[in-house]
Amino acid sequence: MGAPALSAVEEAPPWLNRTHAHLEHIARLAGRIPEARLIVNHLAPIADFGEPKAPENELWAAWRRGLEALAPHANVHMKLGGLANPFMAHSLPAFRGLRERPTPPTSEELAALYRPMVSQAIDTLGPSRCMFESNFPVDKRCMSYRVLWNAFKCLARPYSEDERRALLMGTAVQAYRLQGLPP
Q1: Is 181 helix (H, G, I), strand (E, B) or coil?
Q2: Number of domains comprising the chain
Q3: Which own/partner contact pairs does 109-115 have at CB distance under 8 Å and 24+ positions apart?
Q4: Neighbours of 89 (CB within 10 A)
Q5: What is the CATH number of the domain that holds 62?
């Protein structure tokens, strides 16, 4: 059956579930163990816990460099979602603002917040290595499940039918080797 998928939540070393700062480490691990499937959660969120805080444009540039480091490693997949989590939104003002809104966002508003990171991840890794994910029940504090998945459908709309299928289900079926579901 081959090497198992390493999820950045359950089975991998604790550092694997961290932030954009760890993407180059994950890329090196992927190169050393090409038979293992590595699954990066929550878009490898941009987070800066240092003092003084790094400028946001530097954090974005570091995140993009990390994605580029992952690109050559076909054994790395990325889950697209989870940024409403207070930890994940730490350095992303737009997502931090979700908790401060008097009303929940619409699907279109949420898609607009996710679009820069989701588009970059898909453009860099391809739809066959990216999959939308919910982070419920944590995300429930800022939006409904329906609003979240409708936002993901909005984000998938520009892609071909096969690419949308991959993003919304097929990549997860293949990455996790789910039985009895179409890829």
Answers
A1: coil
A2: 1
A3: 110/143, 110/147, 110/148, 110/151, 111/151, 111/152, 111/154, 111/155, 113/83, 114/80, 114/81, 114/83, 114/151, 114/152, 114/155, 115/155
A4: 22
A5: 3.20.20.140
Q: Please report whether residue 181 resides in a domain.
A: no
Place of tokens 């607009």: 112
Q: Which two tokens stand for residue 23?
A: 């993407």
The model's pLDDT over 116-145, given as tens digits with 9 standing for 90+, comes to 999 999 999 999 999 999 988 888 888 999
Domain coverage including residue 150? 5-175
Sorted by sequence, the CB contacts under 8 Å of residue 93 that are 6+ apart come out as 56
The Cβ of residue 162 has, within 10 Å, a number of other Cβ atoms equal to 11
Establish if 183 belongs to a structural domain. Answer: no
pTM: 0.87
Task: Classify residue 171: in a domain, yes or no.
Answer: yes
In a domain, 126, yes or no: yes
Backbone angles phi, psi at 39, to 5 degrees: -120, 115
Q: What are the phi and psi torsion angles at 37 (to 5°)?
A: -95, 125
- Number of CB atoms found within 10 A of residue 149's CB: 15
